[in-house]
Amino acid sequence: MARIKIQDLKNFCINALEKEGMKPELAVITATVLTKTDAYGTHSHGTKNLHNYIKKARAGGLTLNAEPEIIKEGPSYALMDGNNAMGMVCGVMGMELACKKASETGVGLVTIRNSNHFGAAGYYANIASEKGMIGFVVSNVDPNMNAPGARSKALGNNPIAYAAPAISVPSVFLDIALSNVASLKVFKARAEGKSIPDTWIVDKDGLPTTDPSRYPEEGAMQPMAGHKGYGLAVFVDLITGVMNGGATSMSGEIDSWVLSLDKPNNVCHTFIAIDASKFIGEGVLAQRTEDMAQTLRSLPKAKGSQRIYTPGEIEWENYRKSEREGISIPDDVLESLKGLAEDMQIELPVFD
Ligand SMILES: NC(=O)c1ccc[n+]([C@@H]2O[C@H](COP(=O)([O-])OP(=O)(O)OC[C@H]3O[C@@H](n4cnc5c(N)ncnc54)[C@H](O)[C@@H]3O)[C@@H](O)[C@H]2O)c1
What we know:
The chain is α+β, with helices and mostly antiparallel strands and 352 residues long. The chain contains 11 helices and 12 strands.
């Protein structure tokens, strides 16, 4: 498998974005988020998508140099307009502001409307954990998931992530879509001509199928754990678009960031940071999270099980390996990066 050093991949993305005309400080934010996501091993939401974001900006569906702005705020909250800026820029600025407010008041909530696809939600939750806080992040997305009993797409598979600082790993963090899998995994199986488990999508009649070849034109993603994933996705819409006056995944105002390049994506995000030092004292949270993690890892194992992971542990192991050996780049990501390199006339710093 091809490999690229983390810093080299980041510089490649910065070069591509600056060549496209993005301000250096915004290019650095975007490149850092996407590269770290690949280093975690979450390749479906990393640098693979950069070429598509650039194409979207060219088609008029995303404003490369826009930045989110505060519309209303109080000591512990803010409402921001994303101004159709790059989703990564909205994500980083939103969570940084939530953390700033939390450090003053104990809790900070920032909600953003009119944003774009921000990639992996876990990146932003980890901004809070790096500052010793608990981070919670949600985003609504275009409708791609069904509701129990519904025939077709009803609402988004609205991702949700949390992170808390620990000691043996930088954080305990969960980063998931509320469908059984993220839709980009279905696109990948379709592109590779592979069948999928019958728990991933439903067909045009609302019935489970193993054939991804008609998705997304027909059918919908299945909610994670049936009514539970569905109910949580409704909650995400409540604390994003419903609550902040922006688009909801059911409103018909969120267009696919992959398929509708010329239209604003219009998604909403909400970022919550909690400064637990206000409750239990400075630096205590990481130790208590670590104690919990150790308890989980040392549980009696099921027959045949080698190991019990804490949420996020697999990603941190991938990250450490990427730091040591470079990021292993899957074929689909490599293909997309090569396309970007050719388009921008810059060299892809790949080795192996
Ligand atoms: N921006 C968007 O519009 C959007 C939409 C959907 C999904 N996404 C992103 O897609 C990505 C993938 O989502 P997904 O639902 O396919 O994730 P997934 O099912 O691969 O689950 C990943 C999470 O589960 C944890 N995990 C996995 N195996 C584990 C184990 N054995 N023990 C403990 N924890 C374990 C991981 O640490 C990680 O936190 C996420 O980064 C999500 O934010 C983004």
